[in-house]
Design brief:
four-stranded antiparallel β-sheet; alpha+beta; 4 strands
């Protein structure tokens, strides 16, 4: 099942520093089939990430493993089950 997660960023000064590690983490998720799509909003205020997981709890664990989470960049997020049509 896919889950769409909208993130709001904090600690704008740390984003550039942590982004390479965050993107490496996303690449590992993609390799194992746990990431469908991801990208920041053009104003860098947050991002949309679509995860592939069995449960919302699994998505929360994935988010907790993200370097952006560990470095306080994710100030808030909401998770919604998502059905891809196209």
């Amino acid at each position: 099942m896919k889950f769409a997660v909208v993130f709001t960023y904090a600690n704008q000064d740390k984003i550039a520093e942590v982004r390479p590690e965050h993107r490496e983490y996303l690449a590992t998720l993609k390799e194992r089939g746990a990431l469908a799509a991801s990208g920041p909003f053009v104003d860098d205020s947050g991002a949309l990430i679509i995860y592939e997981a069995d449960t919302e709890d699994e998505v929360k664990r994935i988010i907790e493993g993200d370097p952006f989470h560990a470095n306080g960049i994710f100030s808030s997020y909401f998770i919604r089950p998502w059905k891809q049509v196209y």
